[in-house]
Amino acid sequence: MELLFEKFSGTNARLDDRISITVNRAFGFTKKYFDDNKLSNFKYVVLFYDKKNMAIGFQFINDEKEPHKFTLIRSKQGYGASVVATSFFKTYNLEPKKFRGKYPWKRKNMPEIGRLFIIYLKDKEVAKKEPS
To answer: Can you tell me the distance from the alpha carbon of 100 to that of 98, in angstroms, rounded to the nearest whole number?
Structure first.
């Protein structure tokens, strides 16, 4: 029997399927999310915010003429991608320390917008104070 080994090269890769918010006003897309949703096919992301439901929508695009896009920054090590969105956080008065963490997402086709990946924000500071 011939053994065919493949060297494991996934150390430090984030393999959960989540979108994260960092304290540096950025959104992170894990390797699994990046690969599963074929983000390598896109250069930019447009952000949407639903204040009432505290939801953020992400639309991945390649349209260079879109004036309100953010550049998708790919990890040089192949660990996914991120978007620095300082203006988004400041515009909606979202304090990243309150909302940092990993979020499950849902995909939804929105009339007049198209396909969005949506996360629902949770205030991490309030959650810490709530009794168990």
So the answer is: 6
